[in-house]
Structure prediction request, 187 residues.
Amino acid sequence: MLALAGTLLASCKSPPTNFYTLSPDASLASSGDSRPIVAVIGPVTIPELVDRPQIVTKLGDNGVAVNEFDRWAQPLPGDIGRVIAANLGTLLNSQQISVFDATHDPPSVWHVRIDVMRFDSVPGRDVVVDVLWAVRPPGKGHLVTGRSVAREAVSGPGFDPIVAAHDRALASVSRDIAAAVQANPVR
Prediction:
């Protein structure tokens, strides 16, 4: 009886949980700008649908799957902010871009707000990241706003290719933000 109970309990074991994080794009190149900026990324907002530990994937036009055993290792808004900060650090040749506002000279700091409108994942097909962003230069510079929509193909089955596609999409968003910063005459 005891052996049968042990066998039954072992067969009820749930699959292991897999955890994923977004990563900065290693292929990004510095602009070579000789005057690095100080910037703070945040706040970062995301749709409530994907603001959960589980990775949410789309099923057709109206369906979604909340993948209980495939999860983000940290809250998605923080992970997105961290990746965009790292990407901007590379693109703008600055090691002073952070998600933490810990500067002693606030008038010299750029602020970047990120509002993610869509963070869609379609297994085996593509991801779409749609971001409204606002860059506030230091001092009395004019607010610069923009919208970046990035669609990246998913290279295969599983969640690793989905996360890698999101990394590439966030790199595209980061390039748009870096271009706005570089085009702004306030330095």
